[in-house]
Amino acid sequence: MAVASEKTRSAYAPAGLKPMITQTIATEHFNKRQGAAPVLLRTVDLSMRFGGLTALDRVSIDVHQGVIHSVIGPNGAGKTTLFNCVMQGHRISSGDIQLAGERLIGLTPDKVAAAGIARTYQNIRLFTGITAIENLLVGMHRHLKSRWWEAVLASSRCRHDEEKAHAEAREILKFVGLAGRGDTLARHLSYGDQRRLEIGRALCTRPKLLMLDEPTAGMNPREITEMMIFIRRVREAFGLTIVLIEHQMRLVMEVSDKVTVLDHGVKIAEGDPAYVKSNSAVIEAYLGHAAQRQEHPA
Ligand SMILES: Nc1ncnc2c1ncn2[C@@H]1O[C@H](COP(=O)(O)OP(=O)(O)O)[C@@H](O)[C@H]1O
Ligand SMILES: [Mg+2]
Question: Which of 206, 239, 273 is the last residue in one of the domains?
Fold first, then answer.
């Protein structure tokens, strides 16, 4: 777990240092401890403008292989937009995005998925009218080698693919804690189960990189703890790299190796959780927004 000791933290990020300076130092500190794992996902000066609104402003992030890298920041900071840009759901305004050194710009979202990135959504997007196992089989679809006419002719290759897919789907179902619930309609599962099923569906595409957008949104403290344990298990069992958008600071602090903080589309800090937690610009961004909320309660 990437937590700097109190002594290290004060040595690397003494109080009063400007965020930009401490940011560089904290990032170096992180890299040394990670044994300089290669960069899997890289954004370079990524900007995304919607008309006059700059949702991302020259954001450069390196996600190292094998880490849990959290992206935090107040509402409207640009976190979900970052995911949408990586998946090529938006045509970016400027900059670059690379997966293991290969440019993603201009690919279709399907091709990005095929390159090894899977994501979940802030608001769950399951097919609620079909069963849990069917949701997983949909996720697996692109791995099936059979062509449509083989399906029509029910060829032996097609049958073999289908049996294999079912066996894998059952494994994933078990992994996400839904063994024996495969025939339950997704809409009849509890909220926590639906969240894990959605992650299971993302895992069915066999990604290298899994991007989770607020997986604990709307959860109670017990469910949040369970999700935290689950995310760690996902990383370990599948040897994945995970980018996690999260509001729950407890979760962020406990599971992340590295944290990037966005505010109004700008990266304001980056480093290990202990450093980010004590960073004055981060505290200000969060407290500033909390104070605004108190002044203008919804
Ligand atoms: N498709 C879009 N069209 C116009 N504005 C958008 C779009 N998507 C996001 N935005 C704006 O970009 C900003 C960042 O949004 P978002 O990435 O959803 O923030 P976060 O996920 O950090 O809460 C917000 O001001 C939001 O209103
Ligand atoms: Mg969001």
Answer: 206
